[in-house]
Amino acid sequence: MKRIYSIDAIDAVAEELLRAVSPQENTATLVTLSGDLGAGKTTLSQAIGRALGVKETIVSPTFVIMKRYATKDARFSTLVHIDAYRLKGKGELVPLGWEMLLREPRTLILLEWPERVEGAIPKIAFPIVLSHEGDEERYIDF
Ligand code: ADP
Ligand code: MG
Fold it and tell me: Cα 45–23–15 angle (5° rounding)?
Protein backbone atom coordinates (compact mmCIF):
# COMPACT_ATOMS: atom_id res chain seq x y z
CA MET A 1 0.00 0.00 0.00
CA LYS A 2 1.21 3.50 -0.78
CA ARG A 3 -0.33 6.33 1.18
CA ILE A 4 0.27 9.84 2.50
CA TYR A 5 -1.00 10.25 6.06
CA SER A 6 -1.12 12.85 8.81
CA ILE A 7 -0.53 12.05 12.47
CA ASP A 8 -4.34 11.87 13.01
CA ALA A 9 -4.45 8.80 10.77
CA ILE A 10 -1.60 6.95 12.47
CA ASP A 11 -3.81 4.44 14.32
CA ALA A 12 -5.70 3.60 11.13
CA VAL A 13 -2.39 3.15 9.27
CA ALA A 14 -1.09 0.84 12.02
CA GLU A 15 -4.24 -1.28 11.89
CA GLU A 16 -4.12 -1.53 8.12
CA LEU A 17 -0.50 -2.54 8.30
CA LEU A 18 -1.19 -5.27 10.84
CA ARG A 19 -3.90 -6.64 8.55
CA ALA A 20 -1.34 -6.80 5.72
CA VAL A 21 1.27 -8.69 7.79
CA SER A 22 0.93 -12.48 7.79
CA PRO A 23 2.22 -14.01 11.01
CA GLN A 24 4.84 -16.72 10.46
CA GLU A 25 3.75 -20.15 11.67
CA ASN A 26 6.62 -21.27 13.89
CA THR A 27 9.01 -18.34 13.94
CA ALA A 28 8.93 -14.64 14.66
CA THR A 29 7.44 -12.19 12.15
CA LEU A 30 9.90 -9.46 11.20
CA VAL A 31 8.80 -6.03 9.97
CA THR A 32 11.55 -3.59 8.96
CA LEU A 33 11.05 0.19 9.11
CA SER A 34 13.23 2.23 6.78
CA GLY A 35 13.33 6.02 6.48
CA ASP A 36 15.32 9.08 7.55
CA LEU A 37 15.43 10.46 11.07
CA GLY A 38 12.00 11.85 11.86
CA ALA A 39 10.27 9.92 9.08
CA GLY A 40 7.99 8.40 11.70
CA LYS A 41 9.38 4.91 12.40
CA THR A 42 9.09 5.15 16.17
CA THR A 43 5.73 6.96 16.03
CA LEU A 44 4.37 4.18 13.83
CA SER A 45 5.84 1.53 16.15
CA GLN A 46 3.99 3.16 19.05
CA ALA A 47 0.73 3.04 17.08
CA ILE A 48 1.32 -0.64 16.24
CA GLY A 49 1.86 -1.25 19.96
CA ARG A 50 -1.46 0.44 20.75
CA ALA A 51 -3.19 -1.64 18.08
CA LEU A 52 -1.76 -4.80 19.69
CA GLY A 53 -2.98 -3.75 23.12
CA VAL A 54 0.44 -3.06 24.66
CA LYS A 55 -0.26 -1.35 27.98
CA GLU A 56 3.23 0.02 28.65
CA THR A 57 4.36 3.23 26.99
CA ILE A 58 6.52 2.39 24.00
CA VAL A 59 9.63 4.55 24.16
CA SER A 60 12.22 4.95 21.43
CA PRO A 61 14.78 2.14 21.82
CA THR A 62 17.60 4.26 20.35
CA PHE A 63 19.71 3.99 23.51
CA VAL A 64 18.66 0.58 24.80
CA ILE A 65 18.59 -0.87 21.23
CA MET A 66 15.89 -3.43 22.06
CA LYS A 67 12.66 -3.41 24.09
CA ARG A 68 10.16 -6.23 24.64
CA TYR A 69 6.45 -5.77 25.37
CA ALA A 70 3.61 -8.16 26.18
CA THR A 71 0.52 -7.64 24.02
CA LYS A 72 -3.17 -8.48 24.26
CA ASP A 73 -3.30 -9.58 20.62
CA ALA A 74 -4.63 -12.91 19.37
CA ARG A 75 -1.87 -13.39 16.78
CA PHE A 76 1.21 -11.86 18.42
CA SER A 77 1.77 -12.32 22.15
CA THR A 78 5.03 -10.33 22.21
CA LEU A 79 6.19 -7.16 20.49
CA VAL A 80 9.94 -6.61 20.20
CA HIS A 81 11.04 -3.12 19.14
CA ILE A 82 14.63 -2.68 17.95
CA ASP A 83 16.45 0.46 16.81
CA ALA A 84 19.61 -0.50 14.92
CA TYR A 85 20.63 3.15 14.33
CA ARG A 86 23.64 2.90 16.63
CA LEU A 87 24.74 -0.59 15.55
CA LYS A 88 27.82 -0.96 13.36
CA GLY A 89 26.85 -4.09 11.48
CA LYS A 90 24.95 -7.32 11.88
CA GLY A 91 27.54 -8.74 14.32
CA GLU A 92 26.22 -6.32 16.95
CA LEU A 93 22.86 -8.10 16.87
CA VAL A 94 24.44 -11.33 18.14
CA PRO A 95 24.68 -10.30 21.83
CA LEU A 96 21.02 -9.31 21.68
CA GLY A 97 20.10 -12.92 20.93
CA TRP A 98 19.01 -12.15 17.36
CA GLU A 99 19.02 -15.76 16.09
CA MET A 100 16.91 -16.98 19.02
CA LEU A 101 14.59 -14.03 18.65
CA LEU A 102 13.93 -14.85 14.98
CA ARG A 103 12.81 -18.32 16.09
CA GLU A 104 10.27 -17.14 18.65
CA PRO A 105 6.74 -17.98 17.54
CA ARG A 106 3.95 -15.42 18.07
CA THR A 107 6.48 -12.58 18.25
CA LEU A 108 6.30 -9.45 16.10
CA ILE A 109 9.69 -7.78 15.68
CA LEU A 110 9.72 -4.14 14.55
CA LEU A 111 13.22 -3.19 13.40
CA GLU A 112 14.13 0.44 12.73
CA TRP A 113 17.21 1.09 10.52
CA PRO A 114 17.56 -2.39 8.92
CA GLU A 115 20.25 -0.85 6.64
CA ARG A 116 22.58 -0.77 9.66
CA VAL A 117 22.49 -4.56 10.02
CA GLU A 118 22.49 -5.63 6.38
CA GLY A 119 22.88 -9.36 5.97
CA ALA A 120 20.97 -10.10 9.18
CA ILE A 121 17.51 -9.65 7.67
CA PRO A 122 15.83 -12.85 6.46
CA LYS A 123 14.20 -12.73 3.01
CA ILE A 124 10.81 -13.33 4.58
CA ALA A 125 10.86 -9.92 6.32
CA PHE A 126 8.05 -7.46 5.60
CA PRO A 127 9.58 -4.13 4.53
CA ILE A 128 8.02 -0.75 5.27
CA VAL A 129 9.46 2.46 3.84
CA LEU A 130 8.59 5.86 5.33
CA SER A 131 9.52 9.35 4.18
CA HIS A 132 8.73 12.99 4.89
CA GLU A 133 5.97 14.57 2.86
CA GLY A 134 6.23 18.11 4.20
CA ASP A 135 6.23 18.77 7.98
CA GLU A 136 2.82 17.40 8.82
CA GLU A 137 2.53 14.37 6.59
CA ARG A 138 4.41 11.18 5.91
CA TYR A 139 4.52 8.80 2.96
CA ILE A 140 4.33 5.07 3.66
CA ASP A 141 4.90 2.15 1.31
CA PHE A 142 4.45 -1.48 2.28
P1 ADP B 1 11.91 8.18 13.44
O2 ADP B 1 11.72 7.09 14.44
O3 ADP B 1 11.65 7.74 12.02
O4 ADP B 1 13.23 8.89 13.57
P5 ADP B 1 9.90 9.55 14.96
O6 ADP B 1 8.70 8.70 14.89
O7 ADP B 1 10.72 9.52 16.21
O8 ADP B 1 10.80 9.28 13.68
O9 ADP B 1 9.54 11.07 14.74
C10 ADP B 1 8.57 11.49 13.85
C11 ADP B 1 8.15 12.88 14.26
O12 ADP B 1 7.34 13.38 13.22
C13 ADP B 1 7.28 12.86 15.51
O14 ADP B 1 7.55 14.01 16.27
C15 ADP B 1 5.88 12.92 14.98
O16 ADP B 1 4.96 13.52 15.85
C17 ADP B 1 6.06 13.75 13.72
N18 ADP B 1 5.05 13.53 12.70
C19 ADP B 1 4.39 14.49 12.06
N20 ADP B 1 3.52 14.00 11.19
C21 ADP B 1 3.62 12.67 11.24
C22 ADP B 1 2.97 11.63 10.56
N23 ADP B 1 2.06 11.79 9.61
N24 ADP B 1 3.36 10.38 10.88
C25 ADP B 1 4.30 10.17 11.80
N26 ADP B 1 4.94 11.12 12.47
C27 ADP B 1 4.61 12.38 12.20
MG1 MG C 1 13.10 6.16 15.78
Answer: 40
Which residues place a Cβ less than 5 A from the ion ligand 2?
41-42
Find the 22 Cα to ligand 2 centroid distance in Å: 24
Mutate to test the pocket of ligand 1, among 37, 42, 43, 111 (most ligand atoms within 8 A of CB): 43
Going by C-alpha positions, the residue among 87, 17, 85 that lies closest to residue 46 is 17
Ligand nearest to the CA of 83: 2
Which residues is 107 bridged to in the sheet? 78
d(CA 142, CA 129): 7
* Separation between Cα atoms, residue 38 and residue 18, nearest integer Å: 22
Q: How far is the CA of 25 from the centre of ligand 1 (A)?
A: 32
- Please tell me the pTM assigned to this model: 0.97
Rg (CA), the chain: 14
For residue range 90-118, what is the model confidence (pLDDT) as tens digits? 999 999 999 999 999 999 999 999 999 99
**Dihedral angle of Cα 68, 31, 33, 59, to the nearest 10 degrees:** -20
